[in-house]
Amino acid sequence: MTALLEADGVGCAAGGRELLADVHLEVRAGEILALLGPNGAGKSTLLSVLAGDRRPARGEVRIDGRPLARYRPLELARRRALLPQDHEVSFPFPAAEVVRMGRAPWAGARSAAEDERAVAAALAATECAHLAERPFTALSGGERARVALARILAQDTALLLLDEPTAALDLRHQELVLRIARQRAAAGRGVVVVLHDLTLAAAHADRIALLDAGRTVATGPTGEVLDAALLSRVYRHPVEVLAHPRGGAPIVLPERPREAD
Amino acid sequence: MTATLPETAAPPRAQQPARDRRPLLLAGLGAALLVCALLAAGTGAYAIPPGDILASLAHRAHLGGHALERVPESVLWNVRLPRVVLALLVGAALGCAGALMQGVFGNPLAEPAVIGVSSGGAVGAVGCIVLGLDALGSWTVTAAAFASGLLTVGVVYAVSRSGGRTEVVTLLLTGVAVNAFCGALIGLLLFTADTAAISQVTFWQLGSLSQAGWAKVLAVLPFAALGLAVAPRYARRLDLLALGERSARHLGVDVERMRIVLITVVALLTAAAVAVSGIIGFVGLVVPHLLRMLAGPGHRFLLPASAVGGALVLVAGDLAARTLAAPAELPLGVLTALLGSPFFFWLLRRTRRRQGGWA
Questions:
Q1: Which residue, among B107, B97, B144, B153, has the nearest Cα to B311 in the 3D structure?
Q2: What's the DSSP call for residue B8?
């Protein structure tokens, strides 16, 4: 079986600075791949390259075995969706209308009833149904993030690229978003998610790609990559990895100097 | 059954109130435009009753009716109707161009003037007047305004492109610089001009439809028709552009191509309007803004409604311009800006209060 998405020796630079170098990555159907790394490691740049926004100077990205450069924009829109970090909408479109925009690539290819079903399902899954008629511009940060996610879900693609989808969200909605990602993966989609919370990644991702200074320093199953020594080196801060008392999932904590000990 | 089902998809609410209002609003605007056009055609130094106007129109269209006496027939067909039709075309062009601009730039404050089409057109027109060029007879000013307006937009666009893409901020800032440069050129031309030329330039810059005739109608018609026909084809893609360029591209929109097409359309619409009527401000800014507040930002409604709304405002505005101070005539551009700017200010305050900001 070919991978949904492959990055093969991808490198790119901007303003004389190397942003990515020799990145190899593979996303298979049915898995969540977490993209981790310190600030400036190149996570968002890599996501741009994977989405086709930025053409890599070296290497190649393939979706379904075909290089990105050989896709037309509409074909690509039916295969991959990207949730950006910031959610701006220029005009006060109602939230439901924003989600409906996610159906644009399927215009003419699917029935209107199917479009409406997809929109309603996406709104319900992200717990946004009650926001449907509210103008997007009047929503809170967390509500916008969820409506934006609903739009990505409505796009109904085999590949989902999520750039820090939990950044604006409270604990309950962070779990909700990753649960949705899990459901999508279980339904045979591939999910790439950029996260900063290592424990969250540990709990939900199947595999982790750890980036540092534009290079993949480790790629593998969650338990292998979340190694205290490796993380301490990459994040340049001492880190300890504990096992959850129930189930044993890794919990990653930065070491903190103790005051009264 | 005691087990609770997982949360199922709520059925989408059938219609939102704003959407219900749209066809009605569009029909209302259309009806108001017809009434206003009929009123404008009948009002003036020589009044013509609406019944006679309809009869004469029907007569010329070979649908019955009857011709009027020599004088009213001549006033109607040689003076009033070309002016009303020109106001309608210019208004539709400006309204539609304004809605397109705001959509392309994702900014409710964008207007065609921003990309230099108006000031560029003014340089051409003023140059012709001051330098006394008349290679194309009475058409010289119109043709020069049109050509230099398009040329300016082309320069602004070419300068702000880099690496096959155009950053909106760069485009706007380039427009600001080019507008300032055009202003300086106009100033320089005026500096060298004689008094007669200066008064002619001033009159042109104020914006007016008093020189209307069928020839001018025919000059605007192809550009207005082309622009108004192309614009609605991009309505859905303009909606998607509200998500930002990147997200629009991810939904399959060829953003750069769309931007080139639509800026060309805006330039054609505005240059044609400026060429025959001078600078008439605020229609392209206020009309789409008001309609967006009334019926939401969807471009499938906004583009045609802004065209009809713009036409309505200019037909009514021109009627007011030539009747308020009769027998003198107010410059139309002055009137629209005089009424438009306080109105726009009120709109801004109101929208801000309601939404708590523009973000």
A1: B97
A2: P
Read off the DSSP letter of residue A164.
S
Q: A132–B13: do the CB atoms touch at under 8 Å?
A: yes
Q: Are strands A5-14 and A58-63 parallel, antiparallel or unpaired?
A: antiparallel
State the DSSP string of B91-144: HHHHHHHHHHHHHHHT-TT--GGGGTHHHHHHHHHHHHHHHT--TTGGGHHHHH
> How far is residue B95's CA from residue B283's CA, in Å, rounded to a whole number?
6
List chain B domain ranges.
69-352
Residue A72: how many other CB atoms lie within 10 Å = 9
**Tens of each residue's pLDDT in chain B, 359 residues:** 344 444 444 444 444 444 578 889 999 999 999 999 999 999 888 889 988 999 999 988 888 888 888 888 888 999 899 999 999 999 999 999 999 988 988 877 777 777 788 888 889 888 888 888 877 776 787 888 888 888 888 888 888 776 656 677 787 788 889 889 999 999 999 888 888 888 888 887 888 888 888 988 988 898 899 999 999 999 999 999 999 889 999 999 998 899 889 988 998 898 888 888 888 878 888 899 889 888 889 999 999 999 999 999 999 999 999 898 878 888 888 888 888 888 878 877 876 776 555 44
Which one of B236, B240, B297 has the shortest CB-CB distance to A92? B297
Nearest to A61 by CA among A103, A106, A102, A24: A24
Q: What is the pLDDT of residues A101-142, one digit of tens each?
A: 999 999 888 888 999 999 999 999 999 999 999 999 889 999
- How would DSSP label each residue in B312-339? HHHHHHHHHHHHTTTTS---HHHHHHHH
- Helical (H) or strand (E) element with B99: helix B81-105
For residue B262, the distance in angstroms to the closest alpha carbon of chain A comes to: 18
Q: How far is B73 from chain A (nearest CA, A)?
A: 48
Cβ contact, residue pair B242, A74, below 8 Å: no
Size of interface A-B (CB pairs under 8 A): 96
Mutate one of A63, A90, A139 to test the B interface: name it (highest B CB count within 10 A): A90
Q: Domains (ranges, CATH) in chain A?
A: 5-223 (3.40.50.300)
How close does chain A come to B212, measured CA to CA in Å?
A: 37
3-class DSSP state of A204: helix
Q: State the maximum Cα–Cα separation within chain A, in Å, rounded to a whole number.
A: 68
Closest by CA to B150, choosing from B255, B273, B258, B232, is: B273
CB of B12 within 8 Å of any CB in chain A?
Answer: yes
Looking at domain B69-352, which of 3.30.450.40, 3.20.20.60, 1.10.3470.10, 2.40.30.10 is its CATH number?
1.10.3470.10
